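Dear Dr. H.,

I hope your travels went smoothly. While you were away I took the liberty of generating a structure for the chain from your last submission, since the lab meeting agenda had it listed for discussion. I wanted you to have the full record in hand beforehand rather than looking at slides cold. The sequence, exactly as received, is reproduced here:
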Amino acid sequence: MPKIRWTDLPPALRDHLLDRLRERKITAQDLYRLKLWRESDPDAPDGEWYKDFGSFKVCGDGEYPKTFLLRAKLRKVRSSDARAFGGSLLRRCDRVARGATRSKVFEEALEGWLRNVRQRSLEDEVERYYSSLSKAERAEDSKWAGLAPRALGETWT
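The corresponding predicted structure, in token form, is as follows:
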């Protein structure tokens, strides 16, 4: 099984991790706990993972550590939920993200979902309206519908 990598990281990832360590102001005690864990040469699980150190968590994906989160910023999910959700769905999102952040990808997905919900709601309202018409109202509506193409043709020619 591959190990979590702490050396020979891509430069951008290494810089990101060092920046997060400085920004998060992680205690010396927790940094020591991180050092001991690193020295244990932990296995790299498939997909997303995290290791809790009390005041912060190390979050990673496969063999790479990705970031450090403070306790206040941690998602409230059980680790098994995070692994099940994080596995294939997040990897697929990352593949199609074209450089966008996951937040942006999910924001756009939610906007699309809301558009679809509004569209379905409108279609349901239209269907309810036309279903509620009497035979006489449907006949009148049909006559008006027949006039519209002719009126447009006269207007546009």
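Two observations you may find useful: The helical segments are 11-24, 28-39, 79-96, 102-132, 135-156. The first strand starts at residue 48 and ends at 52.

With kind regards,
E. W.
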